[in-house]
Amino acid sequence: MGTTTFSGPIKAGNVLNTTGTAADGKKVNVGSVVVAQSVAWQQTTTADTGMVIPANSQILEIELLITTQPTAADLTIGNATDGAQIGTALALGTTDDLVLKFSAGDTTDLWADVGTADTPVWVTSSTGTAGRGVLTVSYIQNNNITLIA
């Protein structure tokens, strides 16, 4: 099967500019396509996943599909070994859940807009080496949101 790669965000819809106020096809209906990156995950102390979220993206979801039960630990997602945290203290090994999901929590600003530079994704585990799975980050490219103060 072939693949197609785009260098910018993908938009879908057929009305680009507002020409009316009713939802009769004359209101803007263009939206952004959600994209995702996935990598194989192995429980280690700190690892660069190889994923990079494009600048100005809005993170929608980070989830871990567990294929081998991890050792009890906390998992943190960050943008560098000691960088700003994207998702913090997800408990591993304390549940039989197949999919664990991070929530924005106190990192809402980073989820709304990762910033003006591409953001690498790092994973840090507090201990253990047993866990295996698939880490997926879903986001909207170039959809930075300025939060209302």
How does this structure look, described?
The chain is built from one helix and ten strands; from the N terminus they run E-E-E-E-E-E-E-E-H-E-E. With 149 residues, it is mostly beta strands. It has a single domain (34-140), classed as Jelly Rolls (Sandwich). The longest helix is centred in the last third of the chain and has 5 residues, at 108-112. The N and C termini lie far apart (47 Å).
Largest beta sheet: strand ordering: 3-10-5-8
Count of DSSP helices?
Answer: 1
The H/E string reads EEEEEEEEHEE
- Mean of residue pLDDT? 80
CATH T-level topology: Jelly Rolls
Strand content: 35-45%
State the assembly state of the protein chains.
single chain
Number of domains: 1
The helix/strand class is: mainly beta
C-alpha end-to-end distance: 47 Å
**Uncertain stretches of 5 or more adjacent residues:** none
For the largest beta-sheet, the strand count, sense and barrel status come to: 4 strands, antiparallel
The residue fraction in helices comes out at under 10%
Please state the CA-atom Rg, rounded to the nearest Å: 18 Å
What is the CATH first-level class name? Mainly Beta
CATH architectural designation: Sandwich
Number of strands: 10
Shape: elongated
